[in-house]
């Protein structure tokens, strides 16, 4: 069974998607996206600087567009048995699996990016990668800290990202290092994604999600907050709304997809970070990057 996986924020690079533009399907989708967004995001993707690509209004839509348009150019070879996306990638997965329209998916991603930016500005906050500790130890230490700090991304065994207030993350890094973490590395991010501090963004995104039509996807989707096979439109909506303040359970997602019969993973979008995470869960699992026909 073929599992398609879609990357999240941080996978962007200058020149992304440029080779796709020669495809007529891709070209029309890029131009439609430029209309919806109100500026030529395709120009920034193809020839913009890293600084331009880092802008909140650009990063999330750019990764979404690269992933979704690449999936649309795969033609008849795109026959997913299951899909999943890491954080932002969940929106790409839903569009690729025909649960969301291209336009609705793009508008939701724009709303999400702007809402997250506003939430970041409301309260200074951050994230940190913790390497070499069991999940339970990280969870328990975070619970003991009186500040806001939670396990946010379960990326692979031995790699977990915590998220919260700057003070909360600082205290947690110190305590987790004392508990035996190989590294506690603060990340260069704008805020505490996938934590309770994203509540204002969750409320804004919820309003937008409730207005869109979600259809049953062509195959099961394994969502970040509830990594089990799902095709129910209402449940998909609920999980999408919870995602901004809930944890990205990526380790559990890959483990469950393998348990449910996945025999290869294809990463659709910029970079190959997710393939590396799959290999950390199961070294023998075949992985590859999607390439357009």
UniProtKB/TrEMBL annotation:
Sample GO molecular function, one term: [acyl-carrier-protein] S-malonyltransferase activity
Domain Malonyl-CoA:ACP transacylase (MAT), first and last residues per copy: 5-292
Keywords: Acyltransferase, Transferase
SMART domains hit by this protein: PKS_AT (SM00827)
Catalytic activity: holo-[ACP] + malonyl-CoA = malonyl-[ACP] + CoA
GO cellular component, as recorded: cytosol
GO biological process, one term: fatty acid biosynthetic process
Enzyme class, UniProt record, top EC level: transferase
Annotated EC: 2.3.1.39
Catalytic residues, chain numbering: 87, 194
Family classification: Belongs to the fabD family.
Protein name: Malonyl CoA-acyl carrier protein transacylase
Species the sequence originates in: Pedobacter nyackensis
């Amino acid at each position: 069974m073929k599992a398609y996986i879609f990357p999240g924020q941080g996978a962007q690079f200058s020149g992304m998607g440029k080779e796709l533009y020669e495809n007529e399907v891709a070209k029309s989708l890029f131009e439609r996206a430029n209309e919806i967004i109100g500026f030529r995001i395709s120009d920034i993707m193809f020839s913009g600087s890293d600084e331009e690509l880092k802008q909140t209004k650009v990063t999330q839509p750019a990764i979404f567009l690269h992933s979704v348009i690449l999936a649309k150019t795969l033609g008849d070879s795109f026959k997913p048995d299951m899909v999943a996306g890491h954080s932002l990638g969940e929106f790409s997965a839903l569009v690729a699996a025909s649960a969301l329209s291209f336009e609705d998916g793009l508008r939701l991603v724009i709303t999400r990016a702007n809402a997250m930016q506003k939430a970041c500005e409301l309260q200074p906050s951050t994230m940190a990668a913790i390497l070499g500790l069991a999940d339970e130890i990280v969870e328990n230490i975070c619970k003991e800290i009186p500040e806001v700090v939670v396990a946010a991304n379960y990326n692979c065994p031995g790699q977990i990202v915590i998220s919260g207030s700057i003070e909360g993350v600082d205290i947690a890094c110190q305590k987790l290092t004392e508990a035996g973490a190989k590294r506690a590395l603060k990340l260069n991010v704008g805020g505490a994604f996938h934590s309770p501090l994203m509540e204002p963004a969750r409320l804004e995104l919820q309003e937008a999600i409730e207005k869109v039509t979600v259809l049953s996807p062509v195959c099961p989707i394994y969502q970040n907050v509830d990594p089990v096979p799902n095709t129910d439109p209402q449940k998909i909506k609920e999980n999408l709304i919870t995602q901004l303040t809930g944890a990205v359970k990526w380790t559990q997602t890959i483990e469950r997809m393998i348990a449910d019969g996945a025999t290869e993973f294809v990463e659709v979008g910029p970079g190959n970070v997710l393939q590396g995470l799959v290999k950390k869960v199961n070294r023998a699992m075949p992985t590859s990057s999607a390439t357009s026909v």
